[in-house]
Design a protein that fits this description.
The protein is of the alpha/beta class and 223 residues long. Helices cover 39% and strands 23% of the residues. It is elongated and about 55 Å long.
Length: 223
């Protein structure tokens, strides 16, 4: 499950991008400003950035240049109506990897994203660290206090999802849609049982849980 951040203030475009990339199994977060994007990058590792040109508090090229200056190596795809040669020079010069003019076909977006994600994995962040848990998104290994925790595929997928969205509350239906989207036979009980196994394997006690149940709302990774 590749994590992709979309920085775009047009909600219709965000919806189109999200639906297109979800078809390929990607996890898509979206923000609408430069400041919000910088906050996201401080909290979470992403494997690809889809970036609008004009944002309420700045420009896409300026954000791209700042991320590159901070050492970010993830692929960056500009998604903008500005498609002149001079604009492309600015975008590529700021550190962009590809360019998709608006309006665009969703399938072309999917093809460009797929091509960008074929970059060598050592150029992309591969570990998420929270508390004493380390999750390697390349090898799908999980460690607690440097000791490996062996998780089943759905257990790992659920833990990875929570660790890439810390502090956010998700209803059981949302988790089923993200983790078990291809299996219509599962239900909320599947979430409860899988979470119980993850909690047991991580060995967090009742008073200091890693993933908490928020009554009447859903589940949240407690940071």
């Amino acid at each position: 499950m590749t994590k992709i951040l979309v920085v775009e203030d047009d909600l219709l475009v965000v919806d189109m991008v999200r639906r297109a990339l979800n078809r390929d199994g990607h996890l898509v977060d979206a923000v609408s400003s430069v400041n919000a994007a910088m906050t996201q990058f401080q909290m979470l590792p992403y494997q690809l950035l889809v970036l609008d040109w004009s944002l309420p508090d700045g420009t896409g090229p300026a954000l791209c240049q700042e991320l590159r200056a901070q050492g970010a190596h993830l692929p960056i795809l500009f998604l903008t109506a500005r498609d002149s040669l001079q604009d492309k020079k600015v975008g590529y010069g700021a550190g962009g990897d590809d360019y998709l003019p608006k309006p665009f076909e969703p399938d072309e977006l999917r093809m460009k994203v797929s091509a960008l994600l074929r970059r060598p994995p050592n150029l992309q962040p591969n570990e998420i660290k929270m508390r004493n848990i380390v999750l390697n998104i390349v090898t799908h290994q999980v460690f607690k206090n440097e000791q490996e925790i062996h998780l089943l595929p759905k257990e790992y997928a659920l833990l990875e999802f929570f660790m890439t969205h810390p502090g956010q509350i998700f209803k059981a239906e949302a988790l089923l849609d993200r983790i078990w989207s291809s299996d219509s036979s599962v239900g909320p009980d599947t979430i409860r049982v899988t979470l119980m196994r993850v909690r047991q394997k991580l060995e967090y006690d009742f008073e200091d849980p890693f993933i908490v149940t928020v009554r009447s709302f859903g589940y949240r990774l407690d940071v």
